[in-house]
């Protein structure tokens, strides 16, 4: 097991009817920007519930955050922060809204006028406090310090991370997810699943506790996925998945392990260039990365075959291949395309994707930093 250090200051308030706790959790003198996505927060009453819980505090609402939060749209929210002297941000939504809140929290205190420099690696030294009311479980952003932002007009999608942008608290009410459209539910399932395996299906490090935790979360997601689709108002299933998705990326699964993240690195380009749902890009790229890195990942994939999918056998390679096949079948059973052709993309698009990887300097991806541009091209071509 590798050495590790773990820090996570986010307070989790889990359960039904917990939005009213905002009154005790948010400072009384807070001037709040409420950041949200589409009309669902309004349509289903969540925004009104939040407003009522905040009482007489000064609030300014800013909606329209896209599924992949767009830099130029967020700059409009930044103007609201300046105009109304906002000192607290509340994200009401899923990972995209929360990622947007993290960027705004950092940008509001970032001296340079070019806020995109935050996504290019410039250090942030201060951030506004912020919190979340989670309505779409998927990314784990409600309990971590990472954010992914798109700059659509430049064809870019980048991430940043800082301990200064952990949420102060996150309210996780599973009943808020029962109205999600099936597509968003499915995307959340795939997203959380891939977050887990990007940290788990790498190489053996002997991190037994972390491995078992990851395997249990994968089994839970596989078990509840059919219920989430067939019984969308099943709050028990929603709660199990919500907490699993949070734990998928709150830092626990990286302890003692070596992460991969090449699937995300390559998949981000599919979103940046073709606006394909983030989770669906992961479903396309993951099997290709695993096939390409089969030798290095064989032991862990065989372990996954046994401990997650319940398969048996002595041939490690065959078990590893079976784990890849079972995972792709799981995505397909959810109605998620796992080939570039499913999104009308071909060889010319692979060329453009690789060019974008070169543009952003993504030339040494994966746990061994050996997925260069040629390897990325080979992986993508294998997914046609």
Automatic annotation (TrEMBL):
Domain Fe-containing alcohol dehydrogenase-like C-terminal as annotated: residue spans = 185-356
**Entry-linked CDD domains:** BDH
The reply on keyword Signal is no
UniProt KW keywords? Oxidoreductase
Task: List, separated by semicolons, the cofactors it needs.
Answer: Fe cation
State the Pfam families in the record: ADH_Fe_C, Fe-ADH
The record's comment on protein family reads:
Belongs to the iron-containing alcohol dehydrogenase family.
What is this protein's record name?
NADH-dependent alcohol dehydrogenase
């Amino acid at each position: 097991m590798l050495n590790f250090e773990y820090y996570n200051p986010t307070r989790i308030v889990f359960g039904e009817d917990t939005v009213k706790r905002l009154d005790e959790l948010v400072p009384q003198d807070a001037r709040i920007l409420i950041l949200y996505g589409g009309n669902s927060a309004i349509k289903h009453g969540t925004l009104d519930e939040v407003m009522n819980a905040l009482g007489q505090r000064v609030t300014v609402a800013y909606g329209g955050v896209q599924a992949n939060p767009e830099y130029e749209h967020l700059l409009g929210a930044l103007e609201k922060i300046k105009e109304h002297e906002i000192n607290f941000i509340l994200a009401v939504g899923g990972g995209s809204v929360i990622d947007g809140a993290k960027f705004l929290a950092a940008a509001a205190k970032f001296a340079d006028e070019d806020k995109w420099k935050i996504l290019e690696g410039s250090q942030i030294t201060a951030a506004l406090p912020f919190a979340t009311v989670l309505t779409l479980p998927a990314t784990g952003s409600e309990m971590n310090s990472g954010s992914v932002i798109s700059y659509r007009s430049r064809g870019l999608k980048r991430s940043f991370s800082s301990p200064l942008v952990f949420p102060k608290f996150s309210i996780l009410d599973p009943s808020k997810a029962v109205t999600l459209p099936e597509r968003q539910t499915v995307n959340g399932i795939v997203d959380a699943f891939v977050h887990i395996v990007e940290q788990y299906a790498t190489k053996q490090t002997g991190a037994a506790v972390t491995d078992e935790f990851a395997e249990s979360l994968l089994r839970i997601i596989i078990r509840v996925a059919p219920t989430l689709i067939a019984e969308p108002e099943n709050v028990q299933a929603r709660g199990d998945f919500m907490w699993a998705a949070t734990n998928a990326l709150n830092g626990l699964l990286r302890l003692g392990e070596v992460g991969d993240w090449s699937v995300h690195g390559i998949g981000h380009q599919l979103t940046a260039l073709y606006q394909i749902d983030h989770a669906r890009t992961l479903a396309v790229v993951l099997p290709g990365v695993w096939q390409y890195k089969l030798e290095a990942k064989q032991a862990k994939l065989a372990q996954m075959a046994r401990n997650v999918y319940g398969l048996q056998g002595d041939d490690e390679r065959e078990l590893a291949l079976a784990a890849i096949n079972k995972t792709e079948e799981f995505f397909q059973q959810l109605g998620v395309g796992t080939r570039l052709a499913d999104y009308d993309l071909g060889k010319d698009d692979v060329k453009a994707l690789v060019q974008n990887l070169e543009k952003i300097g993504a030339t040494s991806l994966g746990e061994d930093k050996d997925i260069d541009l040629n390897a990325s091209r080979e992986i993508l071509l294998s997914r046609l």
